[in-house]
Records
---
Amino acid sequence: MEAISFLLDFILHVDKHIQAFVLAYGAWVYALLFIIVFVETGVVVMPFLPGDSLLFIVGALCGVGMMEFVPACTVLLLAAILGDQCNYMIGRYFGPKVFQWENSRWFNRRAFDQAHAFYERYGGITIVLARFMPFIRTFAPFVAGVAAMDRRKFSAFNVFGALVWVLGICSAGYFFGNLPWVQANLEKIIWGLILVPGLIAIFGAWRGSRNAAVPGNAL
């Protein structure tokens, strides 16, 4: 319970925790940032670590000189790219072994073919948009690997998505994160960065399941 309580407090007050880490350990904060983002995007069982809010706070701290913007963004970019690539490789390697293909009662050839066709057709935009959606951000590259999305196509959109995500949100934090109104409502903004994309993802999944249930709408 203590670990869960600390994790929840870290997510909701990531600004205070990162500031305290910088004051205590200085440049080691870049290693911490790499670990958090890599684990959140690269380990399929860790989707609850802070992502969007962390990038925003990092940008804001760079804006007041507590961190350097270019090194911070470089570290976060590397973590985001390598994390998604790792998650994709995990899905690509373990997917067939878990399902054991046609010999397993858990394997559904039609479902696999649909997933593969979806990722071949929409996988690029899915990987990019998933960057901005908590939980979906962690599972999308794994599913892309399981669905055997083309490796080069995945890698290209992985890099592009990471650039848009990291530079976009860090820049927003850098330019707007230290405004008085933002500072006064920072906890609400963090909640918004967590809940709003999540609700959009849930609504999209619900719409998708309804459309799939209608004859003629399946892939």
---
Amino acid sequence: MNFKLSYIPKRSEKPRNQGLTMMMDKGLSLRQTEDFIEASGHLSDVIKFGFGTALVTQRLEDKIKLYQSAGIRPYFGGTLFEAFYARGKFNEFRRLISKYNLDLAEISDGSIIIPHDEKCELIRKLSNDCTVMSEVGSKDSGILISPAKWIRMMQSELEAGSWKVIAEGREAGNVGVFRPNGTAHTLLINRIIAKIKPSDILWEAPQKNQQVWFIKLFGAEVNLGNIAPNDVIPLECLRLGLRGDTFFEFLPKKYEERLKQINEEEEHIDQES
């Protein structure tokens, strides 16, 4: 913080276990990576190389080292894992993680079908090498998963060794825990958090209205992902009540009531004039 301001919610210090911000890197250049770290590295916890971009990104190893030197944990997107797995190359994927000295990996089945018992076994195996996050939910909007199944899968994957379970939302925020128009599946999410600790879940929430919704539900320390590079600082301002959408979330009620009273008095004056 550059200066003090009262009634700013407490944020965990990095490295942290909650209040995570996951930025989605879809192909930043090395220079853009340096600029991102200078501007927003202190607010970013993990960086996902989106979908299969790691295969075609230039100077990938240099980018990984830059992120790691800034105290940020990079990892390959779950779609890349699925591309290796679909080709029968899980062990090659493990070696790839080791080659690039990554301490974080994602296992997902959003594009392909993996029997859930088998997915949990993959989580157990990969957990011997590094920290694992696993994603729950399909990228296909036509595949609907019942709340009970979401809960069972999340519980099983956490028990298998996942550090966090990622609630699918895609980069567009229109599948998984969201409706096609981007609004939250409120009933589904409420059913999930009745059984799964919110601190164990990272919600993919690329859209501003989705970020606001989760912050209002869980507070500043909610785990949010698929954040665009230029949205990391705006998201932190949402977390801290420094944007209009969350302005009154962390102020005492008396301030909101006083401002409401002032507005009413001003409206009365305007009407009289």
---
Amino acid sequence: MLKNFLYLFLIVAGVFLFSGCAGNSSGKSGLSDELLSADSLNPDAPLKLSEEVIGDVIQNISSPVEMATLIKSTGVAFSQKILNDPDNLDKYSTSYKRALNLGVFAADLGYINTFDKNSIVISYLLAVKNLAEGIKVGQFFDFTALKRLATNSNNLDSLMEISISSFNKMDSYLREQNRSNVSSLIVAGTWIEGLYISSSVIEETNNQDLIDRIAEQKDIVNILLIILENYKNDANFATLSTYLQDLKDQYAGVKITTEFGEPKKMEVDGSLIIVQDEISHIKVSPEQMTAIINQIKKIREFIVS
């Protein structure tokens, strides 16, 4: 899962990226300690999905960079006010909140990058630095170099190379420490922030492409719930699951059907492969979308508060 998660996270933040059940928790400080050490996934309650299946699903989650590109195509202006404020960092005193908001700020950076707002990149980059260090993964990132590269669009290749190297090191570390709970929180924070940013634009533009993209996330809610189910003994994970269950309920009326076309032949790295052509048809009413957006807002408020 982690390797696929790395690809998601790199896509999410673009070139400005760095620019089982948990044990009984006795409070926020206890949870913080648990996330900093190996998670206590119950060996008698194994993951309900294989890591390969989870990874495949995560790769299909719409990244905020993809969403931001779609947002930009609508012609709507960049809005910093819809992003999380770096001044909120003092609120995140537990590793649980830090992991969630590391995902949030990564998504914000993807949005910032898409609109080429280099003037505010550094403050968000420093927020990511702070949160990464707070969950003991900051040691893998050379933030001085990343900060320098992030302010110059001519250095994008070098920035990506350092980013990939840093995440490979973090990947190995998290797997060795059995901290899959941290990964699940970062993914959840990233995903929700992408939906939140898109929802804000939908309320302004009523753009049908964005509406369809959010509607398509119906299946992802189910997968995230299954992942979080493995940590349901922890009150904080249980709370997040409750919010996502409410979102799942709002998605219940959304209809998604898939139309399969003729298979297509493609050449990839000198080899001929067959790709199944398919088109998704989305049916969601304005009332359903409003309910979905309202629940996304509630979840996002819970995460950033």
